[in-house]
Specification:
Layout: H1 5-57, E1 75-80, E2 89-91, E3 94-96, H2 98-110, E4 113-118, H3 121-129, E5 135-136, H4 144-147, E6 150-152, E7 157-166, E8 182-185, H5 189-195, E9 208-211, H6 214-222, E10 228-232, H7 233-242, E11 246-248, E12 254-258, E13 261-263, H8 267-282, H9 285-293
Parallel strand pairs: 1-4, 1-5, 8-9, 8-10
Antiparallel strand pairs: 2-3, 5-13, 6-13, 7-10, 7-11, 7-12
Helix pairs in contact: 2-8, 2-9
């Protein structure tokens, strides 16, 4: 049979044209589908990002544990010096007091478990700087020197530095401290104030005897090793009550505010602690705790 080559060629060309048209249509459909899927994925991601941002901005003190601002997950580690009644002291084997109770209330607000580590006062301050504790509460006064090494919350209590002397002492006022040997607890504001130079209102290092705790300073006073002890008013009351023959001068050495110290730059924890303190103040818990230990 004779084949018409021109007719076959026409069929082949037609088929090629038809096939090319189908391929183009398929590619366009696939491209449109992929673009639509990509657009939907992008919109979903954007919506999720907005929801996450809203959630972050709505964080409460109870949710702070999720922010991983503490050293150990689920824990709030506090360093202290438990020789400072009524702020922190031992009742049997348990550390109690204003600071201990306030810290427990804060931990509860934040949904964390409180751990209190007892150590010397200087070590308690250093613990937050070296990553051994999340915060320090030990009747800590905010001073410019301390602010160089750690950050502080808003104040939660006011302290007054006073002078303890023997009942028959010739020291009757702060003016009589010049030239006397003054006992202090090392690292406290009493130490800082008294050890400063006379030009700055202090008495000089040579006139100050430093002890690792308040009770040791008071014991030295009883034994005649120092002429007086400068320390916070509330623990001073407890020391005098427990040691007949001592008294507190009827004059204030200094008035100061106590705050919680945290590692420098830990803004998330600082904000969480301030939020918790504000809540405790607003609902009356803070005043209730202080009132249980300090009776005016």
């Amino acid at each position: 049979m004779k084949v018409n080559r021109k007719w076959i060629a026409a069929l082949v060309i037609g088929a090629m044209v038809f096939g090319a048209g189908c391929s183009s249509s398929t590619e366009e459909t696939s491209t449109e589908s992929a673009a639509q899927t990509q657009e939907e994925t992008t919109e979903e991601a954007a919506e999720e990002e907005v929801q996450e941002e809203v959630a972050e901005n709505d964080t409460t003190s109870e949710e702070v544990a999720a922010e991983n601002v503490t050293l150990e997950e689920g824990m709030l580690i506090m360093s202290t010096n438990a020789t400072f009644p009524p702020y922190e002291y031992y009742d049997g084997d348990t550390i109690v007091g204003i600071d201990a109770d306030v810290a427990a209330a804060i931990a509860d607000k934040m949904g964390l478990t409180l751990q209190i580590n007892d150590m010397e006062f200087d070590s308690a301050l250093a613990a937050v700087q070296t990553g051994q504790a999340d915060m320090v509460m030990a009747g800590v006064t905010v001073t410019p020197e301390r602010e160089e090494n750690m950050d502080f919350t808003n104040s939660y209590a006011t302290g007054v530095q006073v002078v303890i002397v023997p009942e028959d002492s010739d020291i009757t006022s702060i003016d009589d401290l010049q030239g006397k040997l003054i006992g202090v607890q090392q690292g406290t504001t009493g130490d800082i104030y008294c050890s400063d130079t006379p030009e700055n209102g202090g008495y000089g290092e040579e006139n100050v005897q430093k002890f690792s705790s308040g009770p040791l300073a008071v014991e030295a006073l009883k034994n005649g090793q120092v002429d007086c002890v400068v320390i916070d008013n509330e623990p001073a009351k407890a020391y005098v009550e427990a040691n007949p023959g001592l008294k507190i001068l009827d004059t204030e050495f200094a008035v100061e505010d106590y705050a919680i110290g945290v590692a420098k730059g830990n803004d998330a924890l600082l904000d969480a602690l301030n939020n918790a303190l504000e809540e405790l103040e607003s609902d009356g818990t803070l005043d209730k705790i202080i009132g249980e230990y300090i009776h005016e």
